[in-house]
Amino acid sequence: MSEQTLNLRRRLGAALILALVLIAVAGVWRAAGPARRTPTAPAGSAATPAPGPGADRGAPELVIGSLGGFEGWNPLLTERHPLQPLLFRSLVRYNDRMEVEPDLAVSWEVGDDGRTYTLHLTAATWQDGQPVTADDVVFSLTARLHPAADRMGASNLAALAGATEYLAELERLDREREAGRIDADAWEERAQAAYARWLAQGAVRAVDPRTVVVTFAEPYAPALELFTLPVVPAHAFASQAEALDPEHPFHTRAPVGSGPYRLESWVPGVEARLVARDDLPPAATPGYPVVVVRFFRDQDELDRAILDGEVDAGRLSPEAARQAVESGSPLRLVEFPDLGYTYVAYNLRDPVLADPAVRRAIDLAVDRQALVGELFGRYAEPLTSPALPGTWWAGPAPLPRHDPQAARDLLAAAGWRDVDGDGIRERDGRPLVIELLTHRENRYREQAAVMLADWLRQVGIAVEVRRLEWGELVAALREGRYQAALLGVGVGVDPDGYALWHSGGHLNFTGLHDAELDRLLEAGRRGGDRRATYRKVQERLVELQPALFLWQEIQVLAVRPEVAGPISGSPGGFLWNVAAWHPADAGDEPAVGAAGG
């Protein structure tokens, strides 16, 4: 799975500051060169700049392998990419225990009404020497709601005061433009006016250079998840619109961050070179003066580079992780559960899948244990609900049950019978045929679609698998042009599933409408005993079965023994604390075990 796919996955998620979920890999693929190769093109100009402080070519280098498809550095355009912690910081971040800890915000308070969050910033600077201020935070959050911003990502901020109404106004303008009632110029003028009115409400405002106040329309318990979004410098742009320009140098070659590294050079699809900032206090100085990121066009190439020692660290596929363990490789394997799941979303508006008996029969016909075992081995967990093992909010979930005969009996009782003997059931002259969409590039989902079709055929359900590009799949989901779709979604640490499962959720592709579930999801956002509330949410989703929940993956980072430090995964990725990594020396403890340690 590419880093770009992971990125979009998270934008699809509920609470989700998405993450949803996932963009198809774009750009020109280029084969990666030999390890530690210096790029031939600089980040900032046509001529290679003189090495800055900390960029001594003899300095220790950490070489990271990453999948291609990385299109730029601006976190307003590529949210949640695993490389972002190298350059950018957020108000808060998650550690490897899934706990929120201060980052740019050293402390915060929640108002008695649960709607107002006051955040106090630490003393920090951008790599150009300018101070990080409350104005930067205001700019970063409000730019994500600009009319030019990705609308799906903007919807993840709909809980801000006045944002729901503002986004609804944009949708009305979209419909008018699509219907030909207004032209592009009129749309732009009215959309900008709506945005200006929303900004004037002050949902995000700077009280002083170090204090930000964020106000939500209602009590909003998942707020801290929102505050993990990276912050960008307002002074780097003339306007929010300019900050969303994919051709702007900030995105393509000259990002300005407040993180531990600065970008020295980048050859898209080949290699990026980052050097440690020289203006940080000693305690914050990165252990590696130089980080080189080598991009690979697919997971097989990345696996080979990791196993052959061409890179120091990189994410392994489950197959390669098993190979490393079986071969006794000295690689250190670090595991962390993916905070998302793969599932089959049903279109409940479809007359076939609107039938609860069909959905229940599918649930019984699929052997999740066999599916996960064949595709991932021990590097995934089968799921029967959206409850993710290891999260504080996960309740006990029913064990996977594989009972093909019970599935056949259910279908027969619902009137689905194989009258003509062709192996496919019919009812009222309509064959029980389901078109299953999935997207290219993710081989696990493509293989899973074939396995699902085989199991369902055994109980009399025909499945026609159709593979789309990611953008095509998202369009089909948003427009309801599908029966069933196999995809992944990121849900983050917070359990808020409003976007996916509430009747008004902007990612409610299934068309699920359930008053009891809506009530629970609304209560969970307000606070109270959220653990109990979300366990009831999980139970209700198991009853309603708007989707077939399949698996949660376990991510694996492979690290060479020459790299030391507190290396661990977190919801922010494996590079969340990369500044603390350092070259191993004689005084270091050996890497934790061999492969699998």
Written account of the structure:
This protein is an alpha+beta fold. The chain is built from 18 helices and 23 strands. Strands 2, 9, 10, 11, 12, 13, 14, 15, 18, 19, 20 and 21 form a 12-stranded mixed β-sheet that branches. A 4-stranded antiparallel β-sheet has the order 5-6-8-7, covered by helices on one side. Helix 14 (443-457) links the parallel strand 18 and strand 19 (462-468). Helix 4 (163-178) packs antiparallel against helix 5 (184-200), helix 11 (356-365) packs antiparallel against helix 13 and helix 17 (515-526) packs antiparallel against helix 18. Residues 1-56 and 590-597 have low confidence and may be disordered.
> What about the largest sheet?
12 strands, mixed
| Overall form | globular
Q: What's the helical proportion of residues? A: 25-40%
Topology, number of strands? 23
Number of helices: 18
**What percentage of amino acids are in beta strands?**
15-25%
Instruction: Report the uncertain regions.
Output: 1-56, 590-597
Topology:
Layout: H1 3-12, E1 20-21, E2 61-67, E3 92-94, E4 100-102, E5 105-110, E6 116-121, H2 134-143, H3 151-155, H4 163-178, H5 184-200, E7 204-208, E8 211-215, H6 223-226, H7 240-243, H8 249-252, E9 261-267, E10 271-276, E11 290-296, H9 299-307, E12 313-316, H10 318-327, E13 332-337, E14 340-346, H11 356-365, H12 368-376, E15 380-382, H13 404-413, E16 426-427, E17 430-431, E18 433-439, H14 443-457, E19 462-468, H15 470-479, E20 484-490, H16 498-501, H17 515-526, H18 530-544, E21 547-559, E22 563-564, E23 582-583
Parallel strand pairs: 2-11, 2-12, 18-19, 18-20
Antiparallel strand pairs: 3-4, 5-6, 6-8, 7-8, 9-10, 10-11, 12-21, 13-21, 14-20, 14-21, 15-21, 16-17, 22-23
Helix pairs in contact: 4-5, 11-13, 17-18
